[in-house]
Structure formats: structure tokens, C-alpha cells
Amino acid sequence: MKEFAQELLAINKTADYDLTVIVPVYNEEENMKMLEEKLSAFTAIAKCPACILFVNDGSKDNSMAGIQDICSRHNDFFYISFLKNAGLSAAIKAGFDTAQSKYVGYIDADLQTAPDDFNLLLEYINDFKLVMGIRANRKDSGFKRLQSKIANSFRRMMTHDGATDTGCPLKILHTDYAKRIPFFTGMHRFLPALILLQDGGCFKEIPVRHFPRVAGKSKFNLWNRLISPFKDCFAYRWMKHRYINYHIKENNI
Length: 253
Hints:
With 253 residues, this protein is of the alpha/beta class. The chain contains 9 helices and 7 strands; from the N terminus they run αβαβαβαβαβαβααβα. It has one domain (2-240): Spore Coat Polysaccharide Biosynthesis Protein SpsA, Chain A.
């Protein structure tokens, strides 16, 4: 198994690019055609060589077949697929662990944010370890916006990260920093705080466009949008005081 993992790392095609965009997919077959159109349009105009990495999170519909079809038509599109559903944080973490490009990005498969806006974030990525979007003129319902406002306020109080909108699914990170992020369920809500834990960690927020969902169904509800993040804040507080930073001075490996 170790030899196979090393072989996979050696032939990882994402190393040929400056940016790998991770796209977690769970039961999004209705969005696959639009994903292909929007993501391929972005790679054609990206400010740096960019590829797409789909992470199939154990979809129970035809999403995986759609992913394979898309990847067969585009040389810059790749995928990994879970044996079973593991959740959004696991999909993002798997993408971070797999990517070998200098930078790694993340966008939701629902396309409520625009892949083209990655170019806005790329303008600042040399100076910050994380550049993330803020959903301007958010198109969700008033109830969803209220839930997010409450959750974001509580998270800022608990983490002191100062981030405005951690739920915005448009982010770019330095891959070496992304790989050091500790894994736990709900991790995706704490990326700014987790970056700040690392030596030299810093982030910047940029307003990006937001659109209503036009296909598929939202995977979020009151529990995982509001109540679960409250619990995760306490997990972060526990971990914050136990996070390890180290720097190897020399070796003879």
C-alpha cells in the first residue's frame, strides 16, 4: 500500500499546474453539464495554468459517470472517488492531500459562485496564504442568510479570526499550508482560523459574485448550517491550544 501511494504521488498530473481547483461532488448529476461549461471556460482564461480535480463523495446518482465523461473530454480535468460518502470536509481534505500544484482552490458543485472569479483571488495569492471570497449580493433566502449571520458571528467570537464569510465556497490557498490543516468534520468552516494557526499564516477576503442554485438540491439544513458549527467551534478552541508548529533546521535523509 505504501509503495502504491508513493507511485500515485510520483505520477500525479496536478504537479504540472500552478493551481488545482477542487470540486467536491455529491449527487449533483443535474449540474454536471453546467459544471463542464463553466469550469472549462475558466481554465481557458485562468491567470495561471489551472486544472480541475473532482472529488466524488460517494454520490448515489449518476454524478460519477458524468465526472468520467467530462474528464475524458478535457486533458486538464481529473478525479478521485470515495468508496462511500464521507462529507464535505473529507472531500476538501482529500483534494488538499492529492493536489501537487503550488496553489489549491475550492468551489462548490452547485455553481452559486463563478469559477471565473478565481482570477480575482489569484491577484493576491502571492501575498497571502489564503484568499477567499465574500458573497456579495447573496442570492439565498432570508432565513439562510440569517442562519449564516448567526453562525459567522458566533464563530468569530470563538476563534477571533476576523473572517466575514467562511461559508463562501470560493477559496485559494498555498498548497503547503493547505496540507498542514488538521482534519476534522466541519473543517471547511474554519479555514481562515486554521491558516492563522500556522507560522506566517494570513488571509485576505475579496467580494465575489453569488447566484441562486439552478439545479440539484442543497445538502445543507438547519442542523449542519447552524447547530453543528456551534459544536465545531468548541472543537477548534480545544485544538487551537494544542496545535504544533515546527521547522526542521537540517537533516541527512
